[in-house]
Amino acid sequence: MKRLLGLLVAALLLLVWEVAGRTGDTGLFPPVSDAIAELASIDPWTDVLPSAGRALAGFAIGVTLGALLGVTIGWLRGLEPWVRPALEFLRAVPPPAVLPVAVLALGATSGMRITVIAAAAMWPVLIAGVDATRAVEPGYLDVARISHARPVSVILPAVLPALIAGARIALGIALIMMVISEMTAATSGLGYLILQAQRTYAIAQMYAGIIVLGLLGWLVTAVFSLVERHVLSWYEDQKGIAGG
Amino acid sequence: MAETPLVRAAGLGKSFRGRRSTTQAIADIGFEQAPGEFLGVVGPSGCGKTTLLRCLAGLERPDTGTVEFDGRPVTGIPDAVSVVFQDYHRSLFPWLTAGENVRFPIRDRGRAAGREQAREALDRVGLAGFADHHPFQLSGGMQQRVAIARAIVSRPRFLLMDEPFASVDAQTRAVLEQLTVTITAELGLTVLLITHDIDEAILMADRVLVLSARPSRVLREVPIDLDRPRDEVETRALPLFQDYRREIHRVIANPGTAD
Ligand SMILES: Nc1ncnc2c1ncn2[C@@H]1O[C@H](COP(=O)(O)OP(=O)(O)O)[C@@H](O)[C@H]1O
Ligand SMILES: [Mg+2]
Fold this sequence. Notes:
Chain B: It comes from Actinoplanes cyaneus. Chain B: Pfam families: ABC_tran (PF00005). The structure holds two protein chains of two kinds. Chain A is an all-alpha fold. In chain A, 80% of the residues lie in helices and 0% in strands. Chain A is built from eleven helices and no strands. In chain A, α3 runs parallel beside α6 and α8 packs antiparallel against α10. The relative contact order of chain A is 0.13. The mean pLDDT of chain A is 92. Chain B is of the alpha/beta class. In chain B, 33% of the residues lie in helices and 25% in strands. Chain B has eight helices and ten strands. In chain B, strands 5-4-1-2-10-9-3-8-7-6 form a ten-stranded mixed beta sheet, sandwiched between helices. The mean pLDDT of chain B is 94. At the A-B interface, α7, α8 and α11 of A face β6 of B. The complex binds adenosine-5'-diphosphate and magnesium ion. The site of magnesium ion has 5 residues of chain B, from α1.
Protein backbone atom coordinates (compact mmCIF):
# COMPACT_ATOMS: atom_id res chain seq x y z
CA MET A 1 0.00 0.00 0.00
CA LYS A 2 2.75 2.43 1.03
CA ARG A 3 4.77 1.37 -1.98
CA LEU A 4 1.77 2.05 -4.19
CA LEU A 5 1.35 5.54 -2.75
CA GLY A 6 5.02 6.23 -3.38
CA LEU A 7 4.69 5.16 -7.02
CA LEU A 8 1.60 7.29 -7.32
CA VAL A 9 3.44 10.39 -6.12
CA ALA A 10 6.29 9.65 -8.52
CA ALA A 11 3.83 9.29 -11.39
CA LEU A 12 2.19 12.56 -10.38
CA LEU A 13 5.53 14.37 -10.40
CA LEU A 14 6.28 13.03 -13.88
CA LEU A 15 2.86 14.22 -15.01
CA VAL A 16 3.54 17.70 -13.62
CA TRP A 17 6.87 17.70 -15.45
CA GLU A 18 5.16 16.65 -18.68
CA VAL A 19 2.44 19.31 -18.41
CA ALA A 20 4.90 22.02 -17.38
CA GLY A 21 7.14 21.10 -20.30
CA ARG A 22 4.28 21.19 -22.77
CA THR A 23 2.89 24.52 -21.59
CA GLY A 24 6.21 26.28 -21.13
CA ASP A 25 7.58 28.08 -24.16
CA THR A 26 11.15 28.93 -23.10
CA GLY A 27 12.53 25.77 -24.67
CA LEU A 28 14.63 25.25 -21.56
CA PHE A 29 12.30 22.77 -19.97
CA PRO A 30 11.21 20.03 -22.33
CA PRO A 31 8.44 17.62 -21.38
CA VAL A 32 9.58 14.41 -19.78
CA SER A 33 8.52 12.39 -22.82
CA ASP A 34 11.10 14.27 -24.91
CA ALA A 35 13.79 13.59 -22.34
CA ILE A 36 12.88 9.91 -22.30
CA ALA A 37 12.92 9.78 -26.08
CA GLU A 38 16.41 11.26 -25.98
CA LEU A 39 17.57 8.34 -23.80
CA ALA A 40 18.00 6.48 -27.08
CA SER A 41 20.78 8.91 -28.01
CA ILE A 42 22.82 7.86 -25.02
CA ASP A 43 25.06 4.91 -25.80
CA PRO A 44 25.41 2.63 -22.79
CA TRP A 45 28.81 1.37 -23.99
CA THR A 46 30.53 4.65 -24.69
CA ASP A 47 28.66 7.06 -22.43
CA VAL A 48 27.54 5.15 -19.37
CA LEU A 49 29.85 2.19 -18.88
CA PRO A 50 33.16 4.09 -18.79
CA SER A 51 31.66 6.50 -16.25
CA ALA A 52 30.25 3.77 -14.07
CA GLY A 53 33.47 1.82 -14.35
CA ARG A 54 35.55 4.75 -13.17
CA ALA A 55 33.14 5.43 -10.31
CA LEU A 56 33.24 1.82 -9.16
CA ALA A 57 37.00 1.53 -9.52
CA GLY A 58 37.52 4.75 -7.57
CA PHE A 59 34.99 3.66 -4.98
CA ALA A 60 36.64 0.25 -4.54
CA ILE A 61 40.14 1.72 -4.25
CA GLY A 62 38.98 4.49 -1.90
CA VAL A 63 37.06 2.15 0.38
CA THR A 64 39.92 -0.35 0.54
CA LEU A 65 42.48 2.34 1.29
CA GLY A 66 40.18 4.01 3.81
CA ALA A 67 39.55 0.72 5.61
CA LEU A 68 43.23 -0.21 5.72
CA LEU A 69 44.40 3.20 6.87
CA GLY A 70 41.49 3.72 9.26
CA VAL A 71 41.89 0.40 11.05
CA THR A 72 45.68 0.81 11.19
CA ILE A 73 45.55 4.33 12.60
CA GLY A 74 42.82 3.33 15.04
CA TRP A 75 44.76 0.29 16.17
CA LEU A 76 48.13 2.01 16.63
CA ARG A 77 46.97 4.50 19.20
CA GLY A 78 50.46 5.97 19.43
CA LEU A 79 50.19 6.99 15.79
CA GLU A 80 47.05 9.02 16.24
CA PRO A 81 48.45 12.24 17.80
CA TRP A 82 50.89 12.44 14.88
CA VAL A 83 48.40 12.01 12.10
CA ARG A 84 45.15 13.40 13.52
CA PRO A 85 45.68 17.10 12.68
CA ALA A 86 46.80 16.28 9.14
CA LEU A 87 43.80 14.01 8.68
CA GLU A 88 41.40 16.62 10.01
CA PHE A 89 42.79 19.16 7.58
CA LEU A 90 42.79 16.89 4.53
CA ARG A 91 39.32 15.70 5.31
CA ALA A 92 38.07 19.28 5.51
CA VAL A 93 39.26 20.07 1.98
CA PRO A 94 36.23 19.83 -0.34
CA PRO A 95 37.21 17.07 -2.79
CA PRO A 96 36.38 18.98 -6.02
CA ALA A 97 39.08 21.46 -5.03
CA VAL A 98 41.79 18.89 -5.70
CA LEU A 99 40.58 18.30 -9.25
CA PRO A 100 42.73 21.05 -10.86
CA VAL A 101 45.73 19.72 -8.99
CA ALA A 102 45.02 16.20 -10.23
CA VAL A 103 44.64 17.40 -13.83
CA LEU A 104 48.02 19.10 -13.59
CA ALA A 105 49.72 16.13 -11.98
CA LEU A 106 48.11 13.25 -13.87
CA GLY A 107 46.70 14.79 -17.02
CA ALA A 108 43.17 14.42 -18.37
CA THR A 109 43.21 10.64 -18.06
CA SER A 110 40.92 7.95 -16.75
CA GLY A 111 43.51 7.26 -14.09
CA MET A 112 43.26 10.86 -12.90
CA ARG A 113 39.48 10.63 -12.60
CA ILE A 114 39.69 7.33 -10.71
CA THR A 115 42.30 8.83 -8.41
CA VAL A 116 40.12 11.82 -7.62
CA ILE A 117 37.10 9.62 -6.96
CA ALA A 118 39.14 7.30 -4.73
CA ALA A 119 40.70 10.18 -2.80
CA ALA A 120 37.27 11.59 -2.03
CA ALA A 121 35.53 8.29 -1.30
CA MET A 122 38.28 7.23 1.11
CA TRP A 123 37.48 9.70 3.88
CA PRO A 124 34.18 8.53 5.34
CA VAL A 125 35.53 4.97 5.54
CA LEU A 126 38.84 6.07 7.00
CA ILE A 127 37.26 8.20 9.72
CA ALA A 128 34.71 5.49 10.56
CA GLY A 129 37.53 2.95 10.66
CA VAL A 130 39.64 4.99 13.09
CA ASP A 131 36.75 5.62 15.47
CA ALA A 132 35.33 2.08 15.34
CA THR A 133 38.71 0.46 15.84
CA ARG A 134 39.43 2.61 18.86
CA ALA A 135 36.04 1.64 20.25
CA VAL A 136 36.40 -2.12 19.79
CA GLU A 137 35.30 -3.83 22.97
CA PRO A 138 38.50 -4.60 24.93
CA GLY A 139 36.83 -7.84 25.99
CA TYR A 140 36.91 -9.07 22.37
CA LEU A 141 40.64 -8.44 22.25
CA ASP A 142 41.14 -10.32 25.52
CA VAL A 143 39.27 -13.31 24.11
CA ALA A 144 41.45 -13.16 21.00
CA ARG A 145 44.61 -13.08 23.08
CA ILE A 146 43.59 -15.87 25.42
CA SER A 147 42.59 -17.96 22.38
CA HIS A 148 45.92 -17.23 20.67
CA ALA A 149 44.15 -15.52 17.77
CA ARG A 150 45.42 -12.47 15.91
CA PRO A 151 43.72 -9.24 17.01
CA VAL A 152 42.70 -8.49 13.44
CA SER A 153 40.50 -11.59 13.43
CA VAL A 154 38.15 -9.89 15.90
CA ILE A 155 38.78 -6.25 14.95
CA LEU A 156 37.64 -6.66 11.36
CA PRO A 157 34.25 -8.20 12.07
CA ALA A 158 33.75 -5.81 14.99
CA VAL A 159 34.33 -2.71 12.85
CA LEU A 160 32.64 -4.01 9.72
CA PRO A 161 29.28 -2.33 10.41
CA ALA A 162 31.00 1.03 10.79
CA LEU A 163 33.10 0.50 7.67
CA ILE A 164 30.01 -0.37 5.67
CA ALA A 165 28.15 2.67 6.97
CA GLY A 166 31.16 4.72 5.84
CA ALA A 167 31.17 2.97 2.47
CA ARG A 168 27.53 3.88 1.94
CA ILE A 169 28.44 7.56 2.27
CA ALA A 170 31.49 6.97 0.09
CA LEU A 171 29.25 5.58 -2.65
CA GLY A 172 27.35 8.85 -2.92
CA ILE A 173 30.58 10.81 -2.91
CA ALA A 174 32.03 8.57 -5.62
CA LEU A 175 29.08 9.29 -7.93
CA ILE A 176 29.33 13.03 -7.30
CA MET A 177 33.05 13.00 -7.99
CA MET A 178 32.47 10.93 -11.11
CA VAL A 179 30.23 13.64 -12.57
CA ILE A 180 32.43 16.52 -11.47
CA SER A 181 35.58 14.88 -12.79
CA GLU A 182 33.90 14.44 -16.17
CA MET A 183 32.96 18.07 -16.37
CA THR A 184 36.61 19.11 -16.41
CA ALA A 185 38.98 18.37 -19.26
CA ALA A 186 36.89 15.43 -20.42
CA THR A 187 35.85 14.06 -23.80
CA SER A 188 33.55 11.29 -22.64
CA GLY A 189 31.36 10.13 -19.83
CA LEU A 190 27.98 11.12 -18.41
CA GLY A 191 29.19 14.35 -16.84
CA TYR A 192 30.75 15.36 -20.16
CA LEU A 193 27.57 14.40 -22.01
CA ILE A 194 25.37 16.55 -19.77
CA LEU A 195 27.70 19.52 -19.99
CA GLN A 196 28.06 19.14 -23.73
CA ALA A 197 24.30 18.85 -24.23
CA GLN A 198 23.81 22.03 -22.23
CA ARG A 199 26.42 23.90 -24.27
CA THR A 200 24.85 22.82 -27.55
CA TYR A 201 21.29 23.51 -26.36
CA ALA A 202 20.40 19.85 -26.68
CA ILE A 203 18.22 20.42 -23.64
CA ALA A 204 16.22 17.18 -23.88
CA GLN A 205 19.46 15.19 -24.07
CA MET A 206 20.77 17.04 -21.03
CA TYR A 207 17.75 15.89 -19.07
CA ALA A 208 18.13 12.39 -20.46
CA GLY A 209 21.68 12.35 -19.08
CA ILE A 210 20.41 13.44 -15.69
CA ILE A 211 17.80 10.68 -15.76
CA VAL A 212 20.50 8.12 -16.52
CA LEU A 213 22.57 9.46 -13.63
CA GLY A 214 19.60 9.08 -11.30
CA LEU A 215 18.99 5.53 -12.48
CA LEU A 216 22.67 4.68 -12.07
CA GLY A 217 22.70 6.06 -8.53
CA TRP A 218 19.55 4.16 -7.68
CA LEU A 219 20.96 0.93 -9.11
CA VAL A 220 24.30 1.01 -7.27
CA THR A 221 22.58 1.94 -4.00
CA ALA A 222 20.19 -0.99 -4.40
CA VAL A 223 23.05 -3.40 -5.09
CA PHE A 224 24.94 -1.98 -2.12
CA SER A 225 21.96 -2.52 0.18
CA LEU A 226 21.70 -6.12 -0.98
CA VAL A 227 25.36 -6.79 -0.22
CA GLU A 228 25.07 -4.97 3.09
CA ARG A 229 22.09 -7.01 4.20
CA HIS A 230 23.91 -10.19 3.29
CA VAL A 231 27.20 -9.32 5.03
CA LEU A 232 25.64 -7.78 8.15
CA SER A 233 22.68 -10.06 8.70
CA TRP A 234 23.71 -10.59 12.33
CA TYR A 235 23.96 -6.86 12.87
CA GLU A 236 20.53 -6.08 11.45
CA ASP A 237 18.97 -8.88 13.53
CA GLN A 238 20.66 -7.62 16.68
CA LYS A 239 19.48 -4.07 16.07
CA GLY A 240 16.00 -5.39 15.43
CA ILE A 241 15.98 -7.12 18.81
CA ALA A 242 17.61 -4.29 20.71
CA GLY A 243 15.15 -1.87 19.15
CA GLY A 244 12.24 -3.92 20.48
CA MET B 1 49.99 -29.93 50.56
CA ALA B 2 51.66 -33.11 49.36
CA GLU B 3 50.98 -32.60 45.67
CA THR B 4 53.10 -30.22 43.66
CA PRO B 5 51.00 -27.17 42.93
CA LEU B 6 49.73 -26.48 39.41
CA VAL B 7 49.66 -22.75 40.01
CA ARG B 8 51.98 -20.80 42.22
CA ALA B 9 51.89 -17.04 42.69
CA ALA B 10 54.40 -15.24 44.88
CA GLY B 11 54.72 -11.60 45.84
CA LEU B 12 52.43 -10.35 43.09
CA GLY B 13 52.09 -6.57 42.90
CA LYS B 14 50.58 -4.39 40.21
CA SER B 15 50.01 -0.66 39.85
CA PHE B 16 48.37 1.35 37.09
CA ARG B 17 50.01 4.63 36.20
CA GLY B 18 47.50 7.24 35.17
CA ARG B 19 48.18 10.79 33.98
CA ARG B 20 48.15 12.31 37.41
CA SER B 21 48.05 9.50 39.92
CA THR B 22 49.09 5.91 40.25
CA THR B 23 46.65 3.28 41.46
CA GLN B 24 48.13 0.37 43.29
CA ALA B 25 45.69 -2.44 42.56
CA ILE B 26 47.42 -5.36 44.25
CA ALA B 27 50.09 -5.04 46.88
CA ASP B 28 51.31 -8.50 47.67
CA ILE B 29 49.47 -11.67 46.76
CA GLY B 30 50.85 -15.17 47.01
CA PHE B 31 49.19 -18.58 47.00
CA GLU B 32 49.47 -22.09 45.67
CA GLN B 33 46.81 -24.17 44.02
CA ALA B 34 46.87 -27.95 43.72
CA PRO B 35 45.78 -29.72 40.53
CA GLY B 36 42.03 -30.25 40.55
CA GLU B 37 41.50 -27.78 43.38
CA PHE B 38 38.61 -25.33 43.21
CA LEU B 39 39.82 -22.07 44.67
CA GLY B 40 37.46 -19.21 45.48
CA VAL B 41 38.78 -15.65 45.69
CA VAL B 42 36.63 -13.09 47.48
CA GLY B 43 37.30 -9.44 48.10
CA PRO B 44 35.53 -6.12 48.05
CA SER B 45 34.68 -4.51 44.74
CA GLY B 46 37.63 -2.68 43.21
CA CYS B 47 40.22 -4.50 45.31
CA GLY B 48 42.09 -5.85 42.31
CA LYS B 49 40.48 -9.24 41.70
CA THR B 50 40.26 -8.79 37.96
CA THR B 51 43.83 -7.51 37.92
CA LEU B 52 44.94 -10.64 39.79
CA LEU B 53 43.12 -12.86 37.29
CA ARG B 54 44.71 -11.04 34.37
CA CYS B 55 48.17 -11.52 35.87
CA LEU B 56 47.49 -15.22 36.41
CA ALA B 57 46.25 -15.65 32.84
CA GLY B 58 49.27 -13.87 31.40
CA LEU B 59 47.09 -11.06 30.04
CA GLU B 60 48.83 -8.55 32.27
CA ARG B 61 52.41 -8.49 33.49
CA PRO B 62 52.77 -7.97 37.23
CA ASP B 63 55.16 -5.24 38.42
CA THR B 64 56.57 -7.49 41.10
CA GLY B 65 56.40 -11.17 41.91
CA THR B 66 56.01 -14.25 39.77
CA VAL B 67 53.34 -16.59 38.52
CA GLU B 68 54.24 -20.18 37.80
CA PHE B 69 52.01 -22.55 35.89
CA ASP B 70 52.90 -26.22 35.90
CA GLY B 71 56.35 -25.39 37.23
CA ARG B 72 57.17 -22.83 34.52
CA PRO B 73 57.07 -19.06 34.92
CA VAL B 74 54.18 -17.43 33.11
CA THR B 75 55.45 -14.86 30.62
CA GLY B 76 52.94 -15.09 27.78
CA ILE B 77 49.55 -16.74 27.79
CA PRO B 78 49.89 -20.43 28.63
CA ASP B 79 48.15 -22.85 26.26
CA ALA B 80 46.26 -24.78 28.89
CA VAL B 81 44.64 -21.72 30.51
CA SER B 82 41.22 -20.35 29.69
CA VAL B 83 39.07 -17.59 31.09
CA VAL B 84 35.39 -16.87 31.59
CA PHE B 85 35.35 -13.09 31.60
CA GLN B 86 33.31 -10.89 33.88
CA ASP B 87 30.84 -9.65 31.32
CA TYR B 88 29.47 -12.02 28.71
CA HIS B 89 28.04 -9.07 26.74
CA ARG B 90 31.55 -7.95 26.12
CA SER B 91 33.18 -11.27 25.51
CA LEU B 92 30.88 -13.22 23.17
CA PHE B 93 31.22 -12.17 19.55
CA PRO B 94 27.84 -10.97 18.27
CA TRP B 95 28.76 -11.72 14.67
CA LEU B 96 29.23 -15.41 15.41
CA THR B 97 26.62 -17.98 16.35
CA ALA B 98 26.84 -19.76 19.71
CA GLY B 99 28.46 -22.73 17.99
CA GLU B 100 30.98 -20.53 16.19
CA ASN B 101 31.77 -18.65 19.38
CA VAL B 102 32.49 -21.92 21.15
CA ARG B 103 34.62 -23.10 18.23
CA PHE B 104 36.71 -19.90 18.26
CA PRO B 105 39.46 -21.13 20.61
CA ILE B 106 39.86 -24.34 18.58
CA ARG B 107 39.40 -22.75 15.13
CA ASP B 108 42.72 -24.27 13.99
CA ARG B 109 41.60 -27.81 14.60
CA GLY B 110 39.88 -29.43 11.63
CA ARG B 111 36.44 -28.20 10.73
CA ALA B 112 34.66 -31.46 11.43
CA ALA B 113 36.54 -32.16 14.66
CA GLY B 114 36.06 -28.57 15.81
CA ARG B 115 32.37 -28.73 15.17
CA GLU B 116 32.04 -31.98 17.03
CA GLN B 117 33.96 -30.64 20.03
CA ALA B 118 31.93 -27.43 20.06
CA ARG B 119 28.72 -29.44 19.96
CA GLU B 120 29.93 -31.56 22.83
CA ALA B 121 30.82 -28.49 24.90
CA LEU B 122 27.41 -26.93 24.22
CA ASP B 123 25.82 -30.24 25.25
CA ARG B 124 27.66 -30.13 28.54
CA VAL B 125 26.33 -26.68 29.41
CA GLY B 126 22.81 -27.73 28.46
CA LEU B 127 22.63 -25.82 25.20
CA ALA B 128 22.30 -28.69 22.76
CA GLY B 129 20.32 -27.38 19.82
CA PHE B 130 21.29 -23.72 20.27
CA ALA B 131 24.46 -23.84 18.18
CA ASP B 132 22.92 -21.77 15.40
CA HIS B 133 21.55 -19.02 17.62
CA HIS B 134 23.35 -15.71 17.85
CA PRO B 135 24.21 -14.51 21.36
CA PHE B 136 21.62 -11.72 21.28
CA GLN B 137 18.95 -14.32 20.66
CA LEU B 138 19.80 -16.00 23.98
CA SER B 139 19.02 -14.99 27.56
CA GLY B 140 21.77 -13.74 29.85
CA GLY B 141 22.07 -17.10 31.57
CA MET B 142 22.30 -18.91 28.25
CA GLN B 143 24.94 -16.49 27.03
CA GLN B 144 27.01 -17.21 30.13
CA ARG B 145 26.61 -20.92 29.38
CA VAL B 146 28.03 -20.27 25.92
CA ALA B 147 30.96 -18.45 27.53
CA ILE B 148 31.56 -21.45 29.79
CA ALA B 149 31.35 -23.84 26.84
CA ARG B 150 33.90 -21.72 24.98
CA ALA B 151 36.20 -21.81 28.00
CA ILE B 152 36.15 -25.60 28.28
CA VAL B 153 36.13 -26.55 24.60
CA SER B 154 39.92 -26.52 24.29
CA ARG B 155 40.20 -28.85 27.30
CA PRO B 156 42.28 -26.45 29.40
CA ARG B 157 43.84 -27.50 32.68
CA PHE B 158 43.33 -24.22 34.47
CA LEU B 159 40.05 -22.32 34.28
CA LEU B 160 39.86 -18.75 35.53
CA MET B 161 36.41 -17.27 36.14
CA ASP B 162 35.85 -13.58 36.87
CA GLU B 163 32.57 -13.01 38.70
CA PRO B 164 30.86 -15.15 36.08
CA PHE B 165 27.40 -15.00 37.61
CA ALA B 166 27.33 -11.40 38.79
CA SER B 167 24.88 -10.25 36.13
CA VAL B 168 22.30 -13.04 36.07
CA ASP B 169 19.24 -13.42 38.28
CA ALA B 170 19.34 -15.43 41.53
CA GLN B 171 17.62 -18.54 40.15
CA THR B 172 19.82 -18.76 37.10
CA ARG B 173 22.79 -18.08 39.28
CA ALA B 174 22.16 -21.08 41.53
CA VAL B 175 21.72 -23.32 38.49
CA LEU B 176 24.91 -22.05 36.86
CA GLU B 177 26.88 -22.50 40.09
CA GLN B 178 25.84 -26.16 40.23
CA LEU B 179 26.52 -26.64 36.56
CA THR B 180 30.00 -25.16 36.86
CA VAL B 181 30.93 -27.35 39.82
CA THR B 182 29.65 -30.46 38.05
CA ILE B 183 31.36 -29.78 34.72
CA THR B 184 34.70 -28.77 36.16
CA ALA B 185 34.72 -31.83 38.45
CA GLU B 186 33.91 -34.12 35.51
CA LEU B 187 36.72 -32.63 33.48
CA GLY B 188 39.13 -32.63 36.43
CA LEU B 189 39.74 -28.91 35.94
CA THR B 190 41.66 -26.71 38.32
CA VAL B 191 39.44 -23.69 38.83
CA LEU B 192 40.02 -20.24 40.25
CA LEU B 193 36.71 -18.46 40.73
CA ILE B 194 36.62 -14.78 41.54
CA THR B 195 33.50 -13.46 43.19
CA HIS B 196 32.37 -10.78 45.57
CA ASP B 197 29.68 -13.11 46.83
CA ILE B 198 30.95 -14.91 49.94
CA ASP B 199 28.17 -17.51 49.93
CA GLU B 200 28.93 -18.40 46.35
CA ALA B 201 32.60 -18.92 47.18
CA ILE B 202 31.81 -21.16 50.15
CA LEU B 203 29.25 -23.17 48.16
CA MET B 204 31.58 -23.84 45.26
CA ALA B 205 35.16 -23.84 46.47
CA ASP B 206 37.52 -26.23 48.22
CA ARG B 207 39.34 -23.26 49.68
CA VAL B 208 38.62 -19.53 49.82
CA LEU B 209 41.21 -16.81 49.54
CA VAL B 210 40.07 -13.63 51.27
CA LEU B 211 41.54 -10.43 49.84
CA SER B 212 41.75 -7.05 51.54
CA ALA B 213 40.57 -3.77 50.07
CA ARG B 214 42.87 -2.04 47.58
CA PRO B 215 45.82 -2.39 47.45
CA SER B 216 45.01 -6.00 48.09
CA ARG B 217 46.86 -8.68 49.96
CA VAL B 218 45.70 -12.08 51.13
CA LEU B 219 43.98 -11.67 54.50
CA ARG B 220 43.23 -15.32 55.07
CA GLU B 221 42.92 -18.71 53.42
CA VAL B 222 39.86 -20.64 54.51
CA PRO B 223 39.68 -24.35 53.62
CA ILE B 224 36.05 -25.36 53.14
CA ASP B 225 35.30 -28.78 54.62
CA LEU B 226 31.76 -29.18 53.37
CA ASP B 227 30.67 -32.46 51.81
CA ARG B 228 29.89 -32.60 48.11
CA PRO B 229 27.56 -32.49 46.34
CA ARG B 230 26.56 -29.29 48.07
CA ASP B 231 23.06 -28.00 47.91
CA GLU B 232 21.92 -24.43 47.45
CA VAL B 233 19.44 -24.75 50.35
CA GLU B 234 20.64 -27.63 52.54
CA THR B 235 24.30 -26.73 52.63
CA ARG B 236 23.59 -23.10 53.40
CA ALA B 237 21.57 -24.21 56.43
CA LEU B 238 24.50 -26.13 57.96
CA PRO B 239 26.12 -24.57 61.05
CA LEU B 240 29.54 -25.11 59.50
CA PHE B 241 28.50 -23.05 56.47
CA GLN B 242 27.35 -20.27 58.78
CA ASP B 243 30.67 -20.42 60.61
CA TYR B 244 32.63 -19.99 57.37
CA ARG B 245 30.45 -17.14 56.32
CA ARG B 246 30.83 -15.42 59.70
CA GLU B 247 34.58 -15.91 59.66
CA ILE B 248 35.03 -14.45 56.18
CA HIS B 249 32.75 -11.50 56.89
CA ARG B 250 34.70 -10.72 60.05
CA VAL B 251 38.04 -10.88 58.29
CA ILE B 252 36.83 -8.48 55.61
CA ALA B 253 35.19 -6.12 58.10
CA ASN B 254 38.18 -5.98 60.45
CA PRO B 255 41.25 -6.70 58.39
CA GLY B 256 43.46 -5.44 61.25
CA THR B 257 42.44 -8.23 63.59
CA ALA B 258 43.16 -10.97 61.11
CA ASP B 259 45.71 -13.21 62.73
N1 LIG C 1 43.78 -0.92 33.00
C1 LIG C 1 43.67 -0.18 34.12
N2 LIG C 1 44.13 1.10 34.14
C2 LIG C 1 44.02 1.85 35.25
N3 LIG C 1 43.49 1.43 36.40
C3 LIG C 1 43.01 0.18 36.46
C4 LIG C 1 43.07 -0.68 35.31
N4 LIG C 1 42.52 -1.88 35.66
C5 LIG C 1 42.14 -1.75 36.94
N5 LIG C 1 42.44 -0.52 37.43
C6 LIG C 1 42.19 -0.06 38.79
O1 LIG C 1 42.70 -1.03 39.68
C7 LIG C 1 41.80 -1.24 40.74
C8 LIG C 1 41.40 -2.69 40.81
O2 LIG C 1 40.62 -3.00 39.68
P1 LIG C 1 40.03 -4.45 39.42
O3 LIG C 1 41.17 -5.42 39.38
O4 LIG C 1 39.18 -4.37 38.23
O5 LIG C 1 39.16 -4.70 40.73
P2 LIG C 1 38.00 -5.75 41.01
O6 LIG C 1 37.98 -6.73 39.89
O7 LIG C 1 38.34 -6.38 42.32
O8 LIG C 1 36.72 -5.00 41.11
C9 LIG C 1 40.64 -0.30 40.54
O9 LIG C 1 40.84 0.84 41.32
C10 LIG C 1 40.71 0.02 39.07
O10 LIG C 1 40.22 1.32 38.84
MG1 LIG D 1 36.49 -7.20 38.51
